Amino acid sequence: MASITIEIDGNIVNAKAGERLITITDREGISVPRFCYHKKLSVSTSCRMCLVDIEGVPKPQTACSTPVSDGMKIHTQNEKAKASQKAVMEFLLINHPLDCPICDQGGECELQDVAVEYGSDVSRFSEGKRVVAPSDIGPLIQTDMTRCIHCTRCVRFGSEIAGIMEMGGTGRGEDLKIEPFLAEGITSELSGNMIDVCPVGALTSKPFRYELRSWQMASADSVARHDLVGSNLYAQTYKGLVKRVVSGDNELVNETWISDRDRFSYEGLAHENRLLLPQIKVEGQWKEVEWNVALDFAIKGLNKNALNSRKAHKLGGLASSTATTEEFYLMQKMLREIGCENIDYRLNVNNLDDPIHLDSNIKLSDLECVDNVLVIGANLRLEQPMINLRLRKAQLAGATVSALNVKAFDYNHKTNHSTVSPNEIATILAGALKVILEKNSLEAPSYITNINPSELSINLAGKLLNSERSVIVLGEHVINNTQAASIAQMVAQIAKQVNGKTLNVTSSANTLGAQYAHFLPKSKGMNTNEMLTADMSAFLLLDIYPEYDFHHSNSAVEALSKDDVFVVSLNSFNNELVAQYSDVLLPMAAMYETSGSHVNINHDMQSFAAAVKAPEEAKPAWKILKVFADLLELQGFHYENITQVSEELRHQKIYKHKQDIAIELGKKSPAIETIWMHSAYHSDALLRHAKSLSSSKIGQTNSASMNTATAKELSLECGNTYLGVPVVVSDSVADRCVFVSSNQSTDMGRE
Amino acid sequence: MIISDNTKKQIDSWIEKYPQGKQSSAVMEALKLVQAENDNQLTSEAIQAVADYLDMPGIAAAEVATFYENYNHKPVGKHIIRFCHNISCMLNGADDLITHLETKLGVKTGEVTKDGLISVKKVECLGACVGAPMFQIDDQYYEHLTADKIDDIVDGLK
């Protein structure tokens, strides 16, 4: 676009021809009032608030929709502009109730702010005001539609960003209402953003209703730790409690959106089930004690069971992937200092002998520029909503998206779904690799010489070969595939051959942080599954809830519950099983209560400070671990603050336990294949305790989907349960496969 | 909620008139056709069925269905009287005539007579200002209305 100069309020401003006027005034810091315009949404020009005067144009024009041209002279503040804006304001206030004193938006309301500047102090409107009955749209968003000014930001957010149009304008003229259809409620995984975009109090946060005024709260920058994106957000706090979370801006990470689980998970912090006091188990009875007593007890136990008798190799350290990078780092440093190499965060993987190795080598912001996407084993919308949001943009811009999944999931963009059984994936990829190698005139390795590429393989290979910017996304459902490592290796090879990128989303939360912190067993150490079957004498566990976290949950509980095994548990929530096998319970701070960092899929180490203090006696885990190390009289733990820990680990290179494995294909399992996933709002402890999320549509998901033939083979029908989960018969599932998405624990027998 | 094959065929002929992938442009005609085969009424299920058939969000079809006066969301009579009350008709006494009609039939606008024969609706301009005041019964316009004329017309409805 050609560079031009225009004049705004007498100042010469540089711009590009055809740019919208409002983007220029925003860039220049010139205030133009608006309600319907939002920088990330399409222009609707429905509120008319941004009227400005343009010389030579008889009527005032809306800044949001007017493209600029060279020499244009614009007045945003002259009499004509001001009079127009005031007139629009008067119309907007005709039907708006004067209920600011009881409105949650009060104090952060765009209408209120603009009304102070442009509104009249006396209303000339003496007729009756319109009243709209509120509709119940679920446990996350409160509606007060009488306050709605029909800006349609929520409608446009739904259709343009969230990808499912759930809100709409029904009726006409004075009867126009913004509402969802069929009163089914809002089901989007990004719905909370409607609260942020609503310029008035029509859509507000339901859990936050009538709690506080925005000016009463302090706002702390923070980073969400539920997925691999690390969305930037603000934790708003009052008297030591997180009261609300709103989205932050970071174009490279989450733009300006956050997922509902990042927004509403804070509710879990105030759950009655928090672990608040240190406890020790004496003769089978739990006793609440002071910190020093608990720590002494823990040290004595570890010394007795493992350290004094030179049995550090019989000690195991396991941590949840939601831990901060600093927690991972201190815990592995301490364990390695005392000679223990049994360190792992991978709790939910069946086969750790051949783990998945795949680098993510594409930036989040570049995802929207790809022209071909292949998703393998992921329900991205729910598992990685922010990544899906970027891929959706790519799709809308013309990229083709193909998915190899056990079920044709409800993606919110156009996807070529191929439903395949997990044990077919490796062969399909091998076929595609063969086609690609042949095309590139390269010799095929021995394991694929006998492969006869299927139509699907040829099709996928064709798409990959014909695109310039491909990305292959390897998802969480592959993690327990019997050929997971081979699949990952072939994905890397295919990407290399077609100059494409790869995105590894097989694990979530802060797993990259764990790799930077070297929280993995190196040469001599045991991995999680080995520890659970070995003859261990002690464990140090960080925020682990066995019935949800372990793939082998039954054997984990069994291994940890042995009489002669001493278990020290740092937890943020009470848990029956943890209490059953632990000897010491140390209450730790949860998200927003601890400082640290999260490493996202861009490999950005994003630091955050604690927004609030942990409740009662709970302490940040990094402090607990530091004191623990001091009590063990270890050197190198003289940290005065978390920054020193972060600095130390920032120089570390990511730990890659890389090994090329011999790819073998054709292992077909005769049994019915089951993929077990936690529902999106049950993937970590904080989420499981967030009440509003749990009661939302996604949180209520608890189903074992299978097709008619599989149900028949298993003699099941709707109303029965499979592994304790209600059966749903759907022909969108691959033959002889079951896809479980459950909000229950896995102790019903995932193994 | 099932759309009959015959109606589907008619909807398809409308879809063909638009570029490929723009099948939702046929929403108005589709709603009209589905309404016609469902006692001249569109339920939420019917709107959803149309939306599903045209591969568009239910709410988007509902926006259209609730915008226009010719879609009925409540049971209607055998005949619908659409009485214009916009400026030309209003200036020519439409309001009094509407009251006259309501009194004669014993119903308010938006309601159906007890025998299910007639429903009355107030509608926006029907583009017949030259003949104001006017109303439309089913597909027929009646212009230059007076109270007597209305009595004659309405008495003749079967």
> Strand portion of chain B, in percent?
5-15%
Range of strand content of chain A: 15-25%
Could you tell me how far the N terminus lies from the C terminus of chain B, measured between alpha carbons in angstroms?
31 Å
As laid out across the biggest beta sheet of chain A, the strand order is 14-13-24-23-22-15-16
Q: Major sheet of chain A, described briefly?
A: 7 strands, mixed
Which outline of chain A best applies? Answer: globular
Compute the CA-based radius of gyration of chain A. 28 Å
Unreliable stretches covering 5 or more consecutive residues of chain B: none
* Largest interface, counted by CB within 8 Å of the partner chain's CB: A-B, 13 and 11 residues
Oligomer: heterodimer
Low-confidence stretches of chain A: none
Characterize the main sheet of chain B: 4 strands, mixed
* Rg from Cα of chain B: 18 Å
Structural class of chain A: alpha/beta
Q: How large is the count of helical segments of chain B?
A: 7
Share in helix of chain A: 25-40%
Mean pLDDT of chain B: 94
